[in-house]
Amino acid sequence: MSRNTKISIRELTKVFYKKKQSVTAIENISLDVEEGEFVCIVGPSGCGKTTLLRILAGLENQSSGRFKIERSNEDRPNQSMVFQERGILPWLTVEENVAFGLNMRHLPKTYVKERTNYFLRKVGLVKFANMYPKELSGGMKQRVSIARAFANDPEILLMDEPFGALDEQNRYILQEELLSIWSETKKTVLFITHSIDEALYLSDRVLLMSAQPGKMAAEIKIDLPRPRKLEDIRSNPEMASKFLDIWQHLQTEVQGSRL
Amino acid sequence: MKDLKNPIETEKQEWRKQQNQQRLKTWLTIFSPICLLLIWQFLSQSGLIDARFFPPPTAIISTFIDLLTSGELFDHINISLFRIFAGFLLGVIPGIILGLCMGLYAPIRHFLSPLIMALMPIPTLALLPIILIIFGIGEVSKVVTIAGSVFFPVVINTVAGVISIDSIYLDVAKNYGAGRKDFFLKIALPGSLPVMLEGIQMGQAIALLTIVAAEMMGAQSGIGYMIWTSYSAFLLKEMFVGLILISFFGYIFSLLLRALQRKLLPWR
After folding, report:
1. Share of residues in chain B with pLDDT > 70 (%)
2. ipTM
3. Is the peptide bond before A213 cis (omega within 30 degrees of 0)?
């Protein structure tokens, strides 16, 4: 193996138990993500993608199995999450939101300021630094969320359908911006999405999950050179066939869960 | 069909129309109390209502001025305001602290909420005899009475405020490693503040209701005492001065709290 494994997950299972009924959300998930890799997880709704991410994010405990995130630096936080929507705090300004992780770690003020400004500039929100989230559009809010995660400089980034609530136009713009920041920092990213286009455009590898219980079904490598353009994906026949593969997998999964 | 030539001119007129409507609304708001006073004055002077029970506003105003110049009124206002402020703070501050603790820690909440639910329906005024026995007939007993009535809406709204914080914000705090103190100051306090302030606003209104009744029952000074003694002596003009003062202070306190709300919640 030429690269280092950054995230290793072994036989991770999560069961939800309520009123004498148990539902297995994810079952025996094992996977490795390499350092600097951008991995998308695609699967039908309710397949436990979010549960998997929440376990890695420390927001939920697994029922069995284990996972490990390789640390490169003791001062770095393990992971930071970009939430679906409503993930930024309405009572903090844009700047305070971006600085949130750094402030929670009580880092020196000048360092926080400098780093916050850098990422505000990266996402084009310098002019909005002192505004409250209520004054921002959906796309701008997700930019704040992304800037907050990158500013925190974690070992890995977890993203839970960050662009799911955006309109198509905005989604493309934010995907492009995300790739540009990512290519600079080379963070390891685990990204959940519903959108096949999004997965093909962003990732090095797409993992397909099956539903109830959520398991890893297949993986598809996307070895297009970077920087990528959306047009390249759309006009590439190989990508078109990969799109169809994933589409068919999702179709059968959805059909299967209906029976 | 009307031909609209100049688009800017058209919109300008539209804008002026809206401005005029805004002005009208402001005037209506100011006009309603004046209107009431005018009708009252007319009815009272023309003898349609008995001027002994409803003295005309002009007579009440001149009584007000007399009482002011004699200095007697100032003493009543001072002592009442002192009791309101002291009782308000004594009720609000423990209410907020206990409310935050109950909201954040479920065991405390489950332990204390039956007590609060059971004590809340008892009017503090009904407890006044007991309060007088414990705290004596001095200022402390009045302040405690007000504090007791202010405490409940504040504590209940603060708990509701903390519980109503969207769970995603708790996830964000946890994910970004917020410690206990940061969680309290950066998430729980600001997140519960809007609902908490509604409770404080309610507490303010209850404080005024309570002070008047408490001073009627067990005091030798204050606006409530003045209302009661004037009524007993059939000095209805003096009584009305007292009633109007209470309504005036209630209005001013509401305005002050609204201003505070805007100041504390710029993000709303």
Report:
1. 99
2. 0.92
3. yes
Contact A101 B176 (CB under 8 A): yes
Rounded Cα gap, residues B177 and A56, in angstroms: 14
- Strands A156-160 and A79-82, by their bridges, are parallel
Question: Exposed e or buried b for every residue in A207-234, given b needs 16+ CB within 10 A?
Answer: bbbbbbbbbbbeebebebeeebeeeebe
Taking alpha carbons only, the member of A21, A139, A161 closest to residue A84 is: A161
Report the pLDDT value the prediction gives residue A1, as an integer from 0 to 100. Answer: 45
Cβ–Cβ below 8 Å for A59 and B175: yes
For residue A103, which residues of chain B lie inside 8 Å, CB to CB?
A: 182
> How far apart (Å, rounded) are the C-alpha atoms in residues B268 and B262?
8
Cα(A165)–Cα(B196) distance, integer angstroms? 31
Quote the pLDDT of residue B149: 93
Query: Residue B73's CB: how many other CB atoms inside 10 A?
Result: 21
Q: State how far residue B261 is from chain A, nearest Cα, in angstroms.
A: 13
Long-range contacts of B107-116 (CB under 8 A, 24+ apart): B109/B159, B113/B159, B116/B152, B116/B155, B116/B156
Structure tokens at B170: 């708790």
Report the percentage of chain A scoring pLDDT > 70.
98
Give the mean pLDDT of chain B.
92
* Joined tokens for residue B146: 């007000």
Q: What is the distance between the terminal CA atoms of chain B, rounded to a whole angstrom? A: 45
- Band (B3; pLDDT cuts 50, 70, 90): low
- B267 and A100 within 8 Å at the Cβ level: the answer is no
Q: Of how many residues is chain A composed?
A: 259
Could you tell me if B256 and A123 are in contact, meaning their C-beta atoms sit under 8 angstroms apart? Answer: no
Which one, of A241, A236, A200, lies nearest residue A221 by Cα? A200
To 5 degrees, how large is the angle CA A180–CA A183–CA A188?
A: 120
Quickly list H helices, A35-76: 49-56
The letter for the amino acid at A187 is K
Q: Considering only the beta carbons, identify the residue of B171, B176, B179 that sits closest to A100.
A: B176
Q: Where are the domains of chain B?
A: 60-264
A216 in Cβ contact with A29 (< 8 Å): yes
Output the CATH code of domain A1-63+182-259: 3.40.50.300
Q: CA-to-CA distance for A81 and A149, rounded, in angstroms?
A: 6
Q: Token digits for B3?
A: 């031909």
Work out the minimum CA distance from B98 to partner chain A, whole angstroms: 22
- Across residues A41-63, what is the average pLDDT? 92
* Level-2 CATH architecture, domain B60-264: Orthogonal Bundle (1.10)
Helix (H) or strand (E) holding A138: helix A138-151
- Tell me the domain boundaries of chain A: 1-63+182-259
Report the alpha-carbon distance of residue B38 to residue B58 in Å, rounded: 10
Query: Nearest CA to B210 among B86, B33, B53, B98?
Result: B86
